[in-house]
Specification:
Blueprint (H helix, E strand, L loop, with lengths): L57 E3 L2 H4 L1 E13 L7 H10 L1 H5 L5 E4 L4 E2 L2 E8 L8 E8 L4 E8 L4 H8 L8 H4 L4 H4 L4 E11 L5 E11 L2 H5 L1 H4 L1 H19 L4 E2 L7 E3 L2 E8 L2 H6 L1 H8 L5
Antiparallel strand pairs: 1-7, 2-9, 2-10, 2-12, 3-5, 4-5, 5-6, 6-7, 7-8, 8-9, 11-12
């Protein structure tokens, strides 16, 4: 792996004020922890494309209380030369407001911003662009911070089309059974991770700018942990956030510059590194993890 001297990465400007009306429709009231499990009378409603049913009710999934397996931190950074007129604050604000449009092109999943909210936080729904997306969707709530925005993974407390398909016996459907045979509708409502992910934009002392995402997480259920190897979940995480970084840099009218902080690997020009530990405290005490988390309030 090619490596260079590690530089002090800092995010220097706060977010500007913003209006989320152009990102989300008028919100429905939502309370994390509440439950509304009303089921339609007929399963025919599962044919509605990628639709959710019932009120917007969610539980937040935290690594300590809801996670299983080792604690995991991963970090993906893309470096670029800013185009004329680029400013960190407005760019980060636009990143937050337009996240689904930046995330989705060419990615392994499609992101949308439904009208559901968790408190005052917007929500984002992710649906895989493969047959598994017919059954399983994932949700996060997203909070704007002063120099970043951070997502918390969620468990739906309402029925979706995929839940009904599992309830009707999706394990017998060719191509899906091997993946979902051991997943009940209750498990299907959970994001496969329990934890937090943050995004920020910053600048190095030499003038090179960067966009990065970092996460502190665990698997949210033993079934998802068991699927890590068979379906390559860690490889999918790497691909997802590599593509997001690529899309962001392209969206601001620039291109990636190869720059490799010490200890990082590179995938298509995006620097990435990860670390895990069975102890949350021990992982957070790592010098590298401490440095990453210092740039990401809420992790």
């Amino acid at each position: 792996m090619e490596a260079q001297h590690q530089e002090n990465i800092t995010s220097t400007q706060p977010l500007m004020s913003y209006n989320t009306d152009d990102l989300t429709a008028p919100a429905q009231d939502s309370e994390a922890g509440a439950s509304d499990q009303t089921m339609p009378d007929e399963y025919a409603e599962i044919l509605m494309p990628r639709a959710g049913f019932g009120r917007c009710r969610f539980n937040k999934l935290t690594p300590v209380s809801d996670g299983v397996g080792p604690y995991h931190v991963n970090n993906h950074i893309g470096f670029f030369n800013p185009p004329a007129g680029f400013a960190i604050g407005p760019s980060l604000d636009a990143f937050y407001r337009n996240f689904p449009r930046i995330f989705s092109p060419g990615n392994i999943a499609t992101a949308t911003a439904p009208s559901c909210r968790v408190g005052s936080d917007i929500t984002i729904q992710f649906v895989l662009n493969n047959p598994a997306g017919l059954v399983h969707d994932e949700w996060v709530s997203v909070e704007k911070k002063s120099g970043n925005f951070v997502a918390t993974t969620l468990e739906r407390q309402f029925w979706s089309r995929g839940d009904y398909m599992i309830d009707m016996g999706v394990s017998h459907i060719p191509g899906l059974g091997s993946i979902f045979a051991n997943i009940s509708a209750d498990i299907n409502r959970r994001h496969f991770l329990a934890g937090y992910r943050s995004w920020t934009v910053g600048r190095l002392p030499n003038g090179l700018h960067f966009v990065e995402t970092a996460a502190f997480e665990r698997y949210s259920h033993p079934v998802f942990q068991a699927l890590e190897g068979p379906i390559g979940m860690r490889a999918q995480i790497l691909e997802t956030w590599t593509k997001l970084v690529e899309n962001y840099v392209r969206s601001v009218g620039s291109s990636l510059v190869r720059h490799v902080p010490s200890g990082y690997s590179v995938n298509r020009g995006v620097a990435h590194r990860e670390q895990q530990n069975s102890s949350s405290a021990a992982l957070r005490a790592s010098a590298w993890v401490t440095s990453v988390l210092s740039r990401h309030s809420g992790l």
